[in-house]
Each structure stands twice: as structure tokens, then as C-alpha cells.
Amino acid sequence: METLTLTKPDDMHLHLREGDVMRDVLADSARQFARAIIMPNLNSPVVSTGQALAYRQSIIENLPEDIRASGAFEPLMTLYLTEKMTRDEIIKAKESAFVHAVKYYPAGATTNSDSGVTAIENVYPLLEAMAEQNLPLLVHGEVTDADVDIFDREAIFIEKILSPLMDNIPDLRIVFEHVTTKDAVDFVKQGSEKLAATITPQHLLLNRNALFAGGLRPHHYCLPVLKAEEHRRAVVDAATSGNPKFFLGTDSAPHARAAKESACGCAGIYSAHNAIELYVEVFEEKDCLDKLEGFASRYGAKFYGLPGNEGSITLEKNQWQIPDSLPFGESEIIPFRAGETCQWKMR
Ligand code: DOR
Ligand code: ZN
Predict the structure, then answer these.
(1) Res. 111: pLDDT tops 90
(2) CATH code, 10-310
(3) Dist. CA 304 → ligand 1 center (Å)
(4) Which ligand is nearest to the CA of 220?
(5) Bridge partners, 4 (sequence order)
(6) Which of 184, 201, 221, 242 is in Cβ range 3.0-4.6 Å of 278 for a Cys bridge?
């Protein structure tokens, strides 16, 4: 049987939620990944190091027993940037050693972003403090102006927000999260060494036609929204190129089935169930399996200044069927590619 062994990977962009649903989704990630950058967009956002510590403890308490006992999964915490945050909070976060970044959501851009930033100038002093402290900024790179076409939001964000920010605060390290366009890929490639990007499985595997294949497909709706095929190809080329500026971040974002299958459905795709297997398919299709380990296990850690992982995972080429639904607390969740076959299986 064909097998593939990789240094244990890290998921550099993950939503775990909180409360009774967390245990279910966390187990999926903890099986595959050694560490994950945990997004702070809870109903009540994680805006202080104290809250990040409490959230971190609840994640550790909800780990499967064997993984908790062996310390085989480490949550890497982040803070949610608001206009009320103080410079002291940035310093405290850096000193904590368990907060690894601060997430910038433009207000209104996505799930639980109401406390986000209304104008970037309002947080420049905080961003300067982050540059001084060498604490990376993670950006949800979309403008929110209602008159900007939804498919152009990432490209306009580069022009209006990101490019000026990098000129004004060149020492700030930035992760351009979940890049979806050729514009973003080109910008990251040309940018300084301080700039990197994460890439999700859905933006590698699907183009925007998947939103409307035979009818409206709420389980393919995420933000940034899926893009046209030429953009998907640019994102695949970036991921499989071996360029260390591009690394794995699933953006796995679970929502209960009813919240997705709704007249106003939530954005988010749950890919954590078989994330690493999805990425393997993409790299195999491109005949670039030799580039996967860098993307999945090395480049992210390097950007965050973290040591390499010790253990490994092994995948077998072995078809299996992704379940139609999975438990999500009292509710259920529809995983990415529910009911379809997956070509690789983690041992
Ligand atoms: O699709 C998304 N879901 N995009 C985001 O930016 C947020 C995420 C969520 O938290 O549900
Ligand atoms: Zn996200």
C-alpha cells in the first residue's frame, strides 16, 4: 500500500468555538495536528490575555484524555483586536508566551466581527506596539464596504488597507489569512519577509461554481467566499510551490447544521474532520507530494518562531467515505465533502 509519512503538521488557523460543541471538533484537530492557532472570535471575543488563558485552559480540559495526558496538542492562543485595546495589553500578551498573535477583523466582515476594527487608523498605535513586541498580526483581508462587489473584497483590501499598512509599519509581521485570489498570492510573493499567508482546503479544492452546483449549497459558503477557477489555480500553485511564505491554515469553522441551512446562513466550512487528507489530495493531484511537509509542518512554525514538531503522522492511500454528518454538542454538523470519498486515510 502507498503510504506517506510527515512530520506532525500544525493548523495555523482554526475555530474551536466554546461550550459543549468544542469537545467534538477539537478531537478531530488534535488527532492530526500538533498545534493550532486558535481564532478568538467567540460570541464574547477573546480580547485580553486573561481571557486567552481561560480559553486555553478550557481547550486543554476538552482534549481527548490520551492527548491531554501526553501533551500531544498545544493550542496557540490569539487576541481579538479592538479599538479599545491598550498598548499594555499587547505587552502583556507578548510576555504571556502563550498568546502568539492578534487577529484583525474588519467590523462586519464575518462571524462575530461586530467588535472588530471600523478604521485601521484607529488601531495604528496598537499595531506599532505589536511591531515593537514582534507579535504578529493576523488579518481577515476583506473590505466591508457594501458597494464593493463581494468577489473583489480581498483585492480592494490589499490596495486600501494592507499595502499602506506595510508601508507605514514595515516591521510588523503579518499573516494574510485564507488567501483566495491571484491578487493576494502575487502580493504575498512580492512582499517582504515579514508577510506570509495561510491557505484553506476549500480554496484549494473548490471554485465559486461549487456554491451553486445544481442548487444553492450552503455548506460551501465561507468567507472569503470561493473565487473563480483562475484564482483557485493561483492559490494551488502558491501552496504547492515550496515557497515558505504559504502555509497550512484550515479555517475550519463549524456551525450547527440549522445555522448553515437557513434563510440567512452562517459562513464557515467544517474541514477539521479530514483536513490533512484533503491537503494530501491537492498535492498529489499536482504531483507535488514532496512539497507537502514544508507547507503543513515547517513553514508556519518557522514564521511564528516555534520549534519543529517531534512526532510524525502516516497516511495510507485508501478510499473511505466521509460521514454525512457528525455530532456537534446537542446538534450536528455537516463536514466538508460529506458523503463523498476521500482518497487518503490517516493511520
Ligand atoms: O467562513 C468563515 N467562518 N470565515 C470567517 O472569517 C469566520 C469563520 C467563522 O468563525 O465562522
Ligand atoms: Zn477564520
Answers:
(1) no
(2) 3.20.20.140
(3) 22
(4) 1
(5) 315
(6) 201
